[in-house]
Amino acid sequence: METADIKTLVRARYGNIAQADNAACCAPAASCCGPAVSVDARGKARQMGYSDADLAAIPDGANLGLGCGNPQIIAALQPGETVLDLGSGAGFDCFLAARQVGPTGQVIGVDMTHEMLAKARDNASRIGATQVEFRLGELEHLPVADNTADVALSNCVINLVPDKQQVFREAFRALKPGGRLAISDVVNTAPLSDDLKGDTALICGCVVGAPQVDQLETWLAAAGFEQIKVTIKPESRELIATWAPGRNVEDYVVSASIEARKPR
Fold first, then answer.
1. What are phi and psi of 231, to 5 degrees?
2. CATH of 3-261, one of 3.40.50.720, 2.60.120.200, 3.40.50.150, 2.60.120.10
3. Lower Cβ count inside 10 Å, N or C end of the chain?
4. pLDDT tens for residues 146-202?
């Protein structure tokens, strides 16, 4: 598919999720932009590695059951840091990050979906999260200045972007010297079957766009990152199997933690 067509599908699907209020990105649907399916968002978040304390700390409506892991675990956030969330959705990871960086820190969420931004901004307003802001933008063209962030987070969004290499170039630009990536995303572990590869619902469903580990490592190194580490999470197979029940997508993609650092 053309890049513009992919982005149109993704925008429509995630706009639908934001408006549905209780739907998973990878829930089965008649099409990529079809009706969202109700899910247990708290249960999904627990499967990704979020704790009950995490879930209790965020505003209602921030957890939409999205993602494939918990980038907070590898982020090692510190008070006063600036955090950039790539594909911030309704603000789940942004609000958790805000608790860790404290009032002297800053959190910037970037999302290309108007409905998600509206939901995230409403959530921030309701809890008075003044150090969190949400900006409209695409990950290939981040609306932030050079050397802005100490940490760039992302949770199962980069796989949806056609030009992933450009995302990493932009993340490198936006990070301060010594800044770090803390990403949870899916990677491809086996060639997709033709029926999976041609399913537009699985483009939006975090399957078709999953890169191989060696591709990720090559893109990160080309962008300038060092200390690159991609850690496969085989326990994620159970969660991934729910994205397209009965289609064995867990045999082709798996969640991974992706870490890297911008040289000082």
1. -115, 115
2. 3.40.50.150
3. C
4. 999 999 999 999 999 999 999 999 999 999 999 999 999 999 999 999 999 888 889
